[in-house]
């Protein structure tokens, strides 16, 4: 096998492919990437058995063929070479990588026969298109609050369903906070079985996508498939029963406070400078004349920041993890935020004001 390709073109795709390899075991065939070179097209495939990646792009084919190389080392070699045309020549279980018309630079990398490479999954269900920008926005508004406790594996991904209103819904929770994003897409979304998507799959989907145009999704046989910007990827879905997130959202909320998103976020960031790093606890004290944020650290000191707000209720002090409020505020659109609650010991519901298509439920600390 022999082909010629521009370094930056192949490096970009190998960087994507490397995220789908089994990097924990360098001796496994799944740490390799498959290169298929036919009819002036190079197809790259990689898999760690749970996820898979495929892409194709033009090259100059001199000798057709296929082989595999260790993806991580292949990527490192490509990074070290100049941004120009490179020649890839596979002979006798060794790939020679050199700069075209330059005899001073040359690498040799061992190969493994292509027929030993794992077979990638194929999708049996039809794909449906959705907006990259809108879907990625939903992912950003939910992915940060997934769980990290492997004993509750079903919480380590983002739950997706189509609700009775025709909205696509993404949900994430770690048991202490809940993020929900709902959206009606211009594109028709067919009925599908609700699923739990691994966070790694969503991160790679966003890394490959541009946020412009459409991507296509399909759910088939315990896997989710996506086609985006000339790339095909898939992942096993997370098994388990996702908790009924609707039950977590309070149906009746007695008190509400409205403040400027920018002012509240600045206040949270400032008091966080004096927070106890082990607990991350700060206090939000709601008063008739404003919202007081405070934190204290026995070794450093304390901080108090008053933020203007609209509030008509009893003086209430709510302790919470500052990062649980910090991230939603960073992602919110508009000028105002509304915090609704029943008491200092019950869940707070945080939404943009006016309400949009997402909300956050935050449990106070005790």
UniProtKB/TrEMBL annotation:
<dbReference type="InterPro" id="IPR001001">
    <property type="entry name" value="DNA_polIII_beta"/>
</dbReference>
<comment type="subunit">
    <text>Forms a ring-shaped head-to-tail homodimer around DNA.</text>
</comment>
<dbReference type="Pfam" id="PF02767">
    <property type="entry name" value="DNA_pol3_beta_2"/>
</dbReference>
<keyword id="KW-0963">Cytoplasm</keyword>
<feature type="domain" description="DNA polymerase III beta sliding clamp N-terminal">
    <location>
        <begin position="1"/>
        <end position="120"/>
    </location>
</feature>
<dbReference type="InterPro" id="IPR022634">
    <property type="entry name" value="DNA_polIII_beta_N"/>
</dbReference>
<dbReference type="GO" id="GO:0005737">
    <property type="term" value="C:cytoplasm"/>
</dbReference>
<dbReference type="InterPro" id="IPR022637">
    <property type="entry name" value="DNA_polIII_beta_cen"/>
</dbReference>
<dbReference type="InterPro" id="IPR022635">
    <property type="entry name" value="DNA_polIII_beta_C"/>
</dbReference>
<comment type="similarity">
    <text>Belongs to the beta sliding clamp family.</text>
</comment>
<dbReference type="Pfam" id="PF00712">
    <property type="entry name" value="DNA_pol3_beta"/>
</dbReference>
<dbReference type="GO" id="GO:0006271">
    <property type="term" value="P:DNA strand elongation involved in DNA replication"/>
</dbReference>
<feature type="domain" description="DNA polymerase III beta sliding clamp central">
    <location>
        <begin position="130"/>
        <end position="243"/>
    </location>
</feature>
<dbReference type="Pfam" id="PF02768">
    <property type="entry name" value="DNA_pol3_beta_3"/>
</dbReference>
<dbReference type="GO" id="GO:0003677">
    <property type="term" value="F:DNA binding"/>
</dbReference>
<dbReference type="GO" id="GO:0009360">
    <property type="term" value="C:DNA polymerase III complex"/>
</dbReference>
<keyword id="KW-0238">DNA-binding</keyword>
<comment type="function">
    <text>Confers DNA tethering and processivity to DNA polymerases and other proteins. Acts as a clamp, forming a ring around DNA (a reaction catalyzed by the clamp-loading complex) which diffuses in an ATP-independent manner freely and bidirectionally along dsDNA. Initially characterized for its ability to contact the catalytic subunit of DNA polymerase III (Pol III), a complex, multichain enzyme responsible for most of the replicative synthesis in bacteria; Pol III exhibits 3'-5' exonuclease proofreading activity.</text>
</comment>
<keyword id="KW-0808">Transferase</keyword>
<dbReference type="GO" id="GO:0003887">
    <property type="term" value="F:DNA-directed DNA polymerase activity"/>
</dbReference>
<feature type="domain" description="DNA polymerase III beta sliding clamp C-terminal">
    <location>
        <begin position="247"/>
        <end position="365"/>
    </location>
</feature>
<dbReference type="InterPro" id="IPR046938">
    <property type="entry name" value="DNA_clamp_sf"/>
</dbReference>
<keyword id="KW-0239">DNA-directed DNA polymerase</keyword>
<keyword id="KW-0235">DNA replication</keyword>
<keyword id="KW-0548">Nucleotidyltransferase</keyword>
<protein>
    <recommendedName>
        <fullName>Beta sliding clamp</fullName>
    </recommendedName>
</protein>
<dbReference type="GO" id="GO:0008408">
    <property type="term" value="F:3'-5' exonuclease activity"/>
</dbReference>
């Amino acid at each position: 096998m022999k082909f010629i390709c521009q370094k930056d073109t192949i490096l970009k795709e190998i960087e994507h492919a490397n995220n789908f390899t089994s990097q924990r075991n360098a001796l496994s065939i799944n740490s390799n990437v498959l290169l298929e070179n036919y009819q002036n097209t190079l197809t790259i495939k990689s898999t760690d058995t749970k996820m898979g990646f495929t892409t194709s792009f033009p090259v100059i084919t001199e000798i057709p063929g296929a082989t595999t190389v260790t993806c991580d080392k292949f990527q490192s070699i490509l990074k070290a070479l100049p941004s120009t045309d490179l020649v890839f020549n596979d002979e006798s279980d060794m790939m020679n990588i050199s700069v075209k018309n330059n005899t001073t630079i040359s690498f040799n990398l061992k190969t493994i026969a292509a027929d030993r490479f794992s077979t990638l999954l194929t999708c049996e269900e039809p794909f449906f298109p959705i907006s990259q920008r809108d879907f990625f926005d939903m992912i950003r508004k939910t992915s940060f609050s997934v769980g990290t406790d492997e004993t509750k594996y079903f919480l380590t991904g983002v739950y997706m369903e189509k609700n009775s209103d025709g909205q696509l819904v993404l949900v994430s929770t770690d048991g202490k906070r809940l993020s929900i994003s709902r959206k009606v897409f211009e594109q028709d979304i067919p009925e599908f079985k609700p699923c739990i998507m691994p966070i790694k799959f969503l991160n790679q989907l966003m890394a490959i996508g541009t946020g412009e145009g459409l991507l296509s999704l399909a759910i088939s046989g315990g896997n989710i498939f996506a086609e985006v910007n000339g790339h095909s990827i898939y992942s096993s879905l997370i098994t388990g029963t996702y908790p009924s997130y609707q039950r977590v959202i309070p149906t009746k909320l007695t008190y509400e406070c409205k403040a400027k998103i920018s002012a509240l976020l600045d206040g949270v960031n400032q008091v966080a400078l004096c927070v106890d790093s082990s607990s991350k606890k700060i206090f939000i004290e709601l008063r008739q004349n404003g919202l007081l944020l405070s934190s204290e650290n026995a070794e450093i000191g304390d901080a108090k920041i008053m933020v203007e707000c609209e509030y008509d209720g009893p003086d209430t002090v709510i302790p919470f993890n500052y990062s649980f409020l910090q991230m939603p505020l960073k992602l919110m659109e508009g000028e105002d935020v509304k915090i609704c609650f029943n008491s200092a010991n019950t869940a707070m519901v945080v939404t943009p004001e006016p309400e949009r298509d997402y909300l956050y439920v935050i449990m106070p600390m005790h």
